[in-house]
Amino acid sequence: MKPRILLIYTGGTIGMMKDPETWALKSFNFEELLLHIPELRQLDCEISTISYTHPIDSSNMNLKSWQRLGEMIHERYDDFDGFVVLHGSDTMAYTGSALSFMFENLTKPIILTGSQLPIGDLRTDAKENLITTIQLASQIQNGRPIIREVCIYFEYQLYRANRTAKVSADHFEAFMSPNYPPLAISGVHLNIDQNLLWQGTFDEFAFAKANQPQLPEDEYKMFYRPDFVNDVVILKLFPGITPEVVNAICNIPELKGIVLETYGSGNAPSEQWFVDAMKRTLDKGVYIVNVTQCRGGAVDMGKYETSVQLKAIGMVSGKDMTTETALAKMMYLLNYTTTLADFKHYFEKSLRGEVTE
Ligand code: ASP
User: Fold this and answer.
1) Nearest atom in ligand 1 to 11's CA
2) Which phi and psi angles does 326 have, rounded to 5°?
3) Measured in angstroms, how far is the CA atom of residue 169 from the centroid of ligand 1?
4) Most informative mutation of 90, 94, 171 for ligand 1 (most atoms within 8 A of CB)
């Protein structure tokens, strides 16, 4: 039997055309997308399609749209061998990270792709991205999908989604995965490095076990966790940041978490007002995670004097997580953990391969 692939269209450039009057890019009927790629019929799989009723630019993604996407996959999980999500590239790294946490113990691929040029454009990158993504999603070995994680495929590379960031607004090579190698490279051959693929870890299952106590030890199934908390903020440090700005952010009513983008290996101003503001915020129960503004490398609190105090006051380390993943993971764990100790434990551990331990 041929692998069954569900192609989900959420919106984005890949399915856009120019409005003849304003020349602005807007979404068009998904059925037309398939008309533009008759080559899809040559693929050795059965493709079904489904679309958001109103496709959106990915800048309009929010928790509700993540959930809608999650639902579309979850409701049809048993009917397909793989899922391909067409999504705008702007927030694809955030959605990919969120999906990776939403689907615990994933047994099938969910691969997001999009394009920098619309499918109808003569020089479009959409066709290669879409065709290769479908091929990757339909790779089966010994009766089960080879890829069992959430990925992004863009411009000849398959990445673990929760390791990616969008780094270019106009190059076809729009994504990078600074701290984890590509899982597959598409050249003359489609080379999947099976050693790099996600196999699940003790911590993923420990978390599953703590949260699915009703199941016997060997029966942890794919588990769908769609509820995220968005009372969070990303605070990016910059030279000259004032106490007024930091305090205003820390005093946002109902705030539950801050992703603090620090310098280098996790460094922040050592001025007393800053450390006091962080401590006050932690003391009132707001979780703060430290991620680096650098595209590559990791937070290592305590390495420099300027991060010793952050460690001492109980800040959680984002290690080599991207900001996009740290945000999604925080939104996820805020809902699925109850104590700071639990939050810190799971945040600093790899649940879906998002962090190097
Ligand atoms: N603004 C578009 C979006 O993210 C860009 C793209 O599709 O690549 O939806």
Assistant:
1) 9
2) -60, -40
3) 9
4) 90
Segment 207-236, tens digit of pLDDT: 666 666 665 555 557 889 999 999 999 999
pLDDT tens readout for residues 252-297: 999 999 999 999 999 999 999 999 999 999 999 999 999 999 999 9
**Residue-level pLDDT at 357:** 86
Q: How many other C-beta atoms lie within 10 A of the C-beta of residue 50?
A: 13
What is the reported pTM? 0.94
What residues act catalytically? 13
User: Domain boundaries in the chain?
Assistant: 4-192, 232-347
Atom of ligand 1 nearest to the CA of 92: 4
Q: Is 125 in the pocket of ligand 1 (CB under 6 A)?
A: no
Terminal Cα-to-Cα distance of the chain (whole angstroms): 40
Per the listing, tokens 């409701």 go with: 75
Domain at 232-347: CATH architecture: 3-Layer(aba) Sandwich (3.40)
Q: Greater confidence, 217 or 156? A: 156
Q: Would you say domain 4-192 falls under CATH 3.30.420.310?
A: no
Measured distance CA(35)–CA(41) in Å, rounded: 11
13 lines ligand 1 (CB under 6 A): yes
